[in-house]
Structure formats: structure tokens, C-alpha cells
Amino acid sequence: MCPGPVSRRSFLEVGSLGAGMLGLSDILRLKAAAAAAPAGSRSQPDTAIIFLWLPGGPPHMEMYDMKPDAPEEYRGLFRPVTTNVRGIDVCELLPLHANCADRYTIVRSVAHEFADHGGGHKRFLTGRLPARPDGFVNDAPAVGSVVARCREHFAMGLPNYISGTEPGRADVDTYSFGAAYLGATYTPFNLPGDPSESGFTVRNLSVDQSAADRLQDRTLLLRGFDRLRRRIDDSGMMRSMDQFNQQALTLLTSDQARNAFDLTQEPEALRERYGRHAWGQRALLARRLVEAGCSFVTMVMENPYQSGVPWLQSGTYNWDSHAVNCHIFDDARVRFPIYDQAVTALVEDIYDRGLDRRVLLVVTGEFGRTPRLNSQKGTQTGVSQPGRDHWPQAMSMLLAGGGMRTGQVVGSTNSRGEEPKERPLTPNDLWATVYRHLGIDWTQSFLDYSGRPMPILPFGEPISELLPVA
After folding, report:
1. Nearest CA to 143 among 451, 437, 431?
2. Is 224 among the domain residues?
3. Mean pLDDT, rounded, of the chain
4. CATH number for the domain including 331?
5. Per residue in 373-417, pLDDT tens?
6. Domain span at 135
7. Does residue 217 have a pLDDT over 80?
8. In a domain? residue 242
9. Which of 15, 27, 14, 32 is nearest to 251 (CA)?
């Protein structure tokens, strides 16, 4: 169970152990009054989440919910192909998905009401109705932050919440990853950059020799101050600060942390299977991090035009396939094969390494796309091209692992992909499933800014079809 809520007054924040060298002060905040978790909470199951975030809104009718019999203005250009599971079809541009459908589940019937990117991000990632339908600053904590708060007593040598993004997209408010009233302590430890690049390093864990010498000097100095503070401190707060300092030092110097982030330890063949591009290597890094003990890893798969992939004039940066942004079918011909390779490699790797009961993989964006195609003049191309707009009334997602029964489709939409027809679900049902997998009671509350108790989820139930099989 997750330890109970703590007043904001009990949070003690301390500075960095060396500005510009550690860079951990935004992640590792001292919480003196919450240092000890209830004894029962230490028996949490050994479970973790990999969350692949597709910002912009992937087109459900081009990927996992194709409607080949719908009118032409709905069905689009691509055709479904059969998979290794009877009754499951996917887009023809996802052939690797077709080979491993027995190892994942597609959910086709999640819907919500927020069509703006900001509102959609906040609604989806927090499990709450946002106060505003736009903007990306959370007024409730993102799911990863809740997990970090509930698992802060885990000491695995790694942060419990890690994200991977582009260098210029690392701010927590870019994707509504903020922790809101839980505090900045519980925002993700971010890994900016392209892990497929030969010079990729985890910026906050790299120390040159001069920095290492300074670290040793600082450690000796801190020990002297610690002895002095312990003699004058009757409240125990200083001892808690010592623990915070030690946690930061452990992250910087531990072999476990460095090894977890080091992709060069993986066989070349496996790295090639994931793909030598940002998406593939982020997916591989996510597997390494949960295997090393991280509870919640979010990897953003947004821009496919990197890692040597030339920019397509009729393509777009993220999954926001408005006609003014891109030619949806041209963009898909580049984007989908990269996505296909990365996601299926991760699915297969999870099962091949025996992580399929411990690790739950969730792949989704904030909403789907309009079932009916429209054409507009492209901003970059200057010619009329097809696209789809925002559509929260229906969306698809992929899940794997978690001990669930796979090789299935949960829910359906109507004949034109407009709205759920069978098994209507909300993002909250997904998150209740995630919290259940992690052993977190989603009905418990934390105090908001005004001191009011706020339940982790105000509604939602685990999706029964996704629960572990005996």
C-alpha cells in the first residue's frame, strides 16, 4: 500500500550538492517527516510500468482500428493485414506487429471529452477533469508522479520516475508531466537527447576527473558539517538532510545507476532489432531501467525525423496529423515503420527476458483522430493534402506484459470509428489497472494546495480483461 499523505509543511528542500555537476536537486527533495514508510508498504510486489507516450494523438483508424468497409472518406488509403492471432488486424505498415499479436492487447474503446492538446494531456495523464480545457500545467499530479510518491521508500539505486525526451522538450509542463500539489520532488528525472547517438550520455550522471576530485572534497566537507549538525540538532531534521545528501551521492557514483543507463552493454544484434534511432534506443533504455529497479519509465516517441531520418516536407514533428501540418499518409509511411520496429522489439524483449508478469507496457497518445478525413493546404507544402483532426471520442492503445491475457482486442467502435460501441472505457480505467498492477490503492487521498483530501482517482475501475491470469 502507498504511505499516507503528508502536509506540505513537512517537506524540506535542500540545494544541489554542486550546481551544474549533479543536477539532481529538482528530483531528490528531502521529505523529513515522510522519511519512514509504514512497515506494510515495504512488501510491494516487484512491478513496474513502461509508458510510451505518443503526443499529438495517433490516428486510430490508420493503426489499430481500421475500417476497410467504411466509406472512402473515412477508411483512408491503407489496408489491414491479418496477424498471428485470428481476428486481430493491424495496418499494413505495421508488419512486425502482425508477427507478435499473441503478445499484446489492443484496447479500442477509450474516450474522453477534451479535444485540445493541453486539456487532452491533462485529462489523460492525471485521470482527472482539468480545471481548464487548455494549457499544459497540471492542477493534479500526473500518474508517474503519484507512483513516485507512493514508492519513495523504494531504494533501488535509481529514481523511481524517469522520462526520456528531446533536449528542448524536457520541461515537465511540455507534456503535462507535472506533479501539481505533490511537489516538484515527484517530477521525473529526465534523460534528454537521442540514445542512438554514439556520444549520448546521461547528463546528470557524468563526472569528469576534476568534478570527481571536487566531489571527494565536498563529501569530506559535508561529513564534517554533518558531525557538527548532528551535535546541535535535537529534531532529527539534520539527520534527514544527511540521508538526502547520501541519496544524491549514491545516484551519482553507483555502478548500478551507470550500468542501467549504459546501452553499450547490450548486444549489437538486440540494439539493431530495436532500431538505431531515438525511438528504438529509448525503448531499449526503458527496459534496462525497469529491469534495474525503476518503477515508472516514460519515453516520448514524438519526432521520427532524427537519427539520420531525413525531414519529409509533407511530414510533421509529432502525431498531430492535421492536413495543415502534414500529408497524413506520407507521414505515416515514414513514421509507422520506425514505430513498428521499436514497439514490437520492446514487446518481444519483455517476454523473452521473463519480465512479462513484472512489467506492464502501455503505448498511447492523448486522443485519436477524426474518423472523417479532410483536406487543406499544407503549411509546408503549399498544396492540398489529407489529414485528420483531434478526436477524443475514440482512441486505441496497445498494452503488453503485466501478467495479462494477451492476443486479444478489448472494446470496439462503431462502423466509422466515431465512438465506442462495446466496452466503453475512460483513461481512469486504464490508470486503475496500472495502479492495481503496482499495488497502489487508487482510492486513497493526498492533500491539494488548499489542504483538501484529493483521491488519486475520483472514479475508474481496473479493466477486467487486462487483469493477470492465474
Report:
1. 431
2. no
3. 86
4. 3.40.720.10
5. 999 999 999 999 999 999 999 999 999 999 999 999 999 999 999
6. 47-201+276-466
7. no
8. no
9. 27
| Burial group, residue 26, by CB count within 10 angstroms (0-12, 13-18, 19+) | middle
The pLDDT tens digits of the residues spanning 95-140 come to 999 999 999 999 999 999 999 999 999 999 999 999 999 999 999 9
Crossing angle for the helix pair 278-292 and 328-352, nearest 10 degrees?
30
Put residue 397 in one of left, alpha, beta given phi > 0 → left and psi -120 to 50 → alpha: beta
Structural domain includes residue 231 = no
Residue 3 lies in a domain: no
Higher-confidence position of 363 and 17: 363
User: Number of structural domains, the chain?
Assistant: 1
pTM exceeding 0.70:
yes
% of the chain with per-residue pLDDT over 70 = 79
Q: Which residue has the higher pLDDT, 216 or 96?
A: 96
Interval 294-349: pLDDT, tens: 999 999 999 999 999 999 999 999 999 999 999 999 999 999 999 999 999 999 99
